[in-house]
Each structure stands twice: as C-alpha cells, then as structure tokens.
Design a protein that fits this description.
- The protein has a single domain, classed as Aminopeptidase (3-Layer(aba) Sandwich).
- Helices cover 16% and strands 31% of the residues.
- It has two helices and six strands.
- Strands 1, 2, 3, 4, 5 and 6 form a six-stranded mixed β-sheet that branches.
- Strand 2, helix 1 and strand 3 form a beta-alpha-beta unit.
- The chain is globular, with a radius of gyration of 24 Å.
- It starts with a strand and ends in a 28-residue tail after the last strand.
- One of its GO terms (molecular function) is acyltransferase activity, transferring groups other than amino-acyl groups.
- This is Acetyltransferase domain protein.
- It comes from Mycobacterium xenopi 4042.
- Keywords: Transferase.
Length: 115
C-alpha cells in the first residue's frame, strides 16, 4: 500500500457533511504527489458539502492549500499535536438576473416619434 484515507459521511445536526481520517502515505512514497492526488479525489467525492479533518499539526498548512481552515483548539492525540480543520461548504453559484423582454435592451434614448 502506498497511500490511504478514510472518508466518512456524517449528519451532524441533521445536515450532510464529511470527515476525512487516517490519511497515511508510506514514508518512502512521500513527496511524490500521492497524498495530494488521493486528497483531491476524496474532496471531489465531498463536492460542495463541508468536510472536517483532525490534521497532525505539522500538516495544517498542506490542508490549508486545499481549502481547510482551523476550526477549534489544538489537541494532542497519542502524543501527536493535532489541529481540527474544516473545509466549509461551497456557496451555491450566483443566480442569473433576468429582465423582462421589454427592458432587455435597456432604456431607449434619443428616439423621436413622428406623428
């Protein structure tokens, strides 16, 4: 195995969200892009939903490059400093503004009407 992670679907407060855990890359394979490709694939599955991760503190900047932000106080687990992080839900795309057909060309100016 070169690289692995766990992606879990959760429903905190009844709202759909995801959590990434146990992201691990074989020491001899680190720095070759495996982690980034696997993380991007997981985030593609997450889509526009929020996603949480308890990142090892030294990796917080790497996760920040993928849209994660600190989300709570640092803590120690199994003797390793961790940072809770969140990739917020993506906002919906802006809605197109439509105008009635009569105003689609905007106001007309300088038009003279002959009787």
């Amino acid at each position: 195995m070169i690289c692995t992670l766990r992606l879990m679907e959760e429903y905190p407060g009844g709202e759909k969200a995801f959590r990434i855990g146990r992201l691990c890359t074989k020491r001899s394979a680190r720095g070759q892009g495996y982690t980034t490709r696997l993380l991007r694939a997981a985030l593609a599955e997450v889509g526009d939903y929020p996603c949480r991760i308890n990142a090892q503190a030294y990796l917080a900047e790497m996760y920040a490059q993928h849209g994660f932000v600190r989300d709570g106080d640092d803590f120690v687990e199994d003797g390793i400093p961790h940072v809770p992080m969140l990739k917020p839900a993506s906002p919906p795309p802006p809605r197109a503004v439509t105008r009635p057909a009569s105003s689609a060309r905007g106001p007309r100016t300088g038009v003279k009407v002959q009787p």
